[in-house]
Write a structure and sequence with these properties.
By secondary structure, this protein is α+β, with helices and mostly antiparallel strands. Helix content is 52%, strand content 12%. A 6-stranded antiparallel beta sheet has the order 1-2-3-4-6-5, with helices on one face. A 3-stranded antiparallel beta sheet has the order 7-8-9. Pfam families: Pkinase.
Length: 430
C-alpha cells in the first residue's frame, strides 16, 4: 500500500512467483482497500489518495524558489527550496498539502495546526518556519534535513545496543517536547524519523489531520490517516487520540531497533508495556518510557522490576562491578573471620573442659595417695586405678585419653637404679 501503482504491480508479480499462497491472501485485501470504502483507510502516499496530478517543481512560491521534489506522503508533496529574495541563504523543504483536503478540512484549521508546529523548538524536531497558500494549496515551510530514514540508517550503520538506546532516547525527548506544547505526532514511523550526518534524529511529518479531527471536531469521521504497522489500536478505530497513542508507536519503533530479544529482557519488557492494547496498562507518558530506557543504559533497575531484590542486586553488580566485588569480598572476609572466631572460641571451651577433667583426675590421684592405706597400695596399682578412671570419663576426648595412657605406660625407673645413677654422676664430678 506504500507503493505507487507500477511498483505495486511489480511487487505483486514477484510475490506471485515466490509466494503464491501469500499472493492469494493479499490480493483480496488490496481489492477491498481500493474500493469505495478507501476513505476509511486513508492511504500513505498522495498519488494513491487523490486523482489530480500537480507539480510545483522549479516555480516561485511567495519568496521561495522551488527546485525539485523530495517525496510524497499521505498529506501532500515535499519539495526542496531556498529563499528567492536574497535575504538569507538557507536550504528549506516546502510541504504542499494536497488540494483535495480543501474539500475535507478547513484551511483555517490547517493553518492553526501548522502554527502549533512552528512553536516547537527542539534539536530533534524539523523546524517549521513559515506557511501560506499558493494557487489554493496550503503549504508549510520547514527545515530541510540532510539525512536518511531510520530504516535506511539501521541497514547501513551498525550500532551497538547502547547507541540504539541513546538514539531512541533522543526520539523520546523530541516527542516529550511536542507533548508539552499540546502537539501529537500521530504518525510516528521509520519514514518520519530522519537521521542526520551527526547521527541525531529529526522528527518530520506530524499528522495534522488527527489534531484537526479530534480536538477541533471539524474533520470527517471517515478520514483516518495512519501507518498500519505503527499506529495505535485507538487510532485505527478513529477514536480520540492522546499522548499514549505516540507511546504505542514508540514501543513499535523500539521493537524495530531490538527485534530479537527474550521476553524477560528489560528492553522487551519496556516494549511490551508501551504497546499494551489497554491504555491504562501503558506508560503514563513518553517521559516515563524514556526514564526506563535510560535506566537500561545506566544499568539501573527499571520501574517494572524494582520490587525484585535479586534483580536490583544484579543491576548494582552490573553498574558498579569493582566496588561491588570489593564489598562482597569484605562481607565474605567478615563472615570467614567471624566463623574462625566462633570455631576458636568453641575449641577453647573444649580445652577448658578437658583441663578441668585432667585436674580432677590428678586431684583424685593425690587425694588417694595421702590415705592411711597408701603404703599397702603399690604405684602400679594406683596407675591402673587412674587409667581405669580416665577410660571411664566420658568428658575426656579420645586423643587426650590416648596421650595420658601413653604417658602412664612409660616405665618408671626403680629406686636402686636412680640412686646408682646419682652416685656415678657425683664421682664424675669429683
Amino acid at each position: 500500500m506504500d507503493l505507487d501503482d507500477e511498483q505495486q504491480r511489480k511487487m505483486l508479480d514477484d510475490l506471485k512467483n515466490s509466494h503464491p499462497d501469500i499472493y492469494r491472501d493479499v490480493t483480496p485485501l488490496l481489492n477491498i482497500t481500493t474500493s469505495d470504502h478507501f476513505s476509511d483507510l486513508f492511504g500513505f502516499h498522495a498519488q494513491q489518495a487523490f486523482h489530480v496530478e500537480w507539480d510545483f517543481s522549479h516555480q516561485i512560491v511567495d519568496k521561495y524558489q522551488i527546485t525539485e521534489e523530495l517525496g510524497r506522503g499521505g498529506m501532500g508533496v515535499v519539495y526542496s527550496a531556498y529563499r528567492n529574495n536574497g535575504t538569507f541563504e538557507q536550504e528549506l523543504a516546502i510541504k504542499f498539502i494536497q488540494p483535495d483536503f480543501n474539500n475535507l478540512l478547513d484551511k483555517h484549521a490547517l493553518f492553526e495546526e501548522a502554527q502549533l508546529l512552528a512553536r516547537l523548538n527542539h534539536p530533534y524536531i524539523a523546524k517549521v518556519f513559515d506557511g501560506g497558500e499558493h494557487e489554493g494549496t496550503v503549504y508549510v515551510v520547514m527545515e530541510k534535513v540532510i539525512g536518511t530514514t531510520l530504516n535506511e540508517f539501521l541497514y547501513s550503520t551498525p550500532l551497538s545496543p547502547k547507541e540504539k538506546l541513546l538514539l531512541f532516547s533522543q526520539i523520546c525527548q523530541a516527542l516529550e517536547h511536542a507533548h508539552q506544547n499540546d502537539v501529537l505526532h500521530a504518525d510516528l514511523k521509520p519514514e518520519n524519523i530522519l537521521i542526520d550526518k551527526q547521527h541525531c534524529p529529526k522528527l518530520i511529518d506530524f499528522n495534522l489531520t488527527q489534531k484537526v479531527q479530534n480536538s477541533r471536531g471539524r474533520g470527517i469521521k471517515e478520514l483516518v490517516a495512519y501507518s498500519e504497522h505503527f499506529a495505535s489500536p485507538e487510532q485505527k478505530k478513529g477514536d480520540y487520540l492522546t499522548s499514549l497513542s505516540d507511546v504505542y508507536s514508540l514501543g513499535k519503533i523500539l521493537h524495530l531497533l531490538f527485534p530479537d530479544l527474550e521476553s524477560k529482557h528489560d528492553i522487551a519488557c519496556i516494549q511490551q508495556k508501551a504497546t499494551q492494547i489497554n491504555l491504562s496498562k501503558r506508560y503514563n507518558s513518553v517521559e516515563d518510557l524514556r526514564h526506563d530506557i535510560e535506566s537500561v543504559v545506566s544499568s539501573q533497575p527499571i520501574t517494572l522490576k524494582q520490587q525484585n531484590p535479586l534483580y536490583v542486586l544484579h543491576c548494582l553488580l552490573k553498574r558498579k562491578p569493582v566496588p561491588s566485588f570489593l564489598l562482597v569480598l569484605l562481607i565474605l572476609s567478615g563472615l570467614l573471620f567471624s566463623g574462625l572466631l566462633i570455631f576458636k572460641n568453641h575449641q577453647l571451651e573444649q580445652e577448658k573442659i578437658v583441663a578441668e577433667n585432667m585436674m580432677y583426675e590428678v586431684t583424685q590421684l593425690l587425694f588417694h595417695s595421702k590415705g592411711r592405706d597408701v603404703s599397702k597400695v603399690s604405684i602400679n596399682s594406683m596407675l591402673e586405678l587412674t587409667r581405669r578412671r580416665i577410660l571411664s570419663n566420658p568428658d575426656l576426648p579420645t586423643h587426650i585419653k590416648q596421650k595420658m595412657l601413653l604417658a602412664m605406660m612409660t616405665p618408671i625407673p626403680t629406686k636402686h637404679k636412680v640412686i646408682s645413677e646419682n652416685i656415678e654422676k657425683e664421682q664424675q664430678t669429683l
